[in-house]
What does this fold into?
Amino acid sequence: MANQLGKRYACETCGSSILCTKGGEGVVICCDAEMALQQARKLPSSD
It folds into this structure.
């Protein structure tokens, strides 16, 4: 899987997270495991 520009990745082991600033081939590794892609958070309503 390719790294996606502008996406956040999180380590399920230690809890650290990164923001991808340059897309490319390969995977993001932390604590000897592939980091998981974080889901987008909902923005609060501006009503």
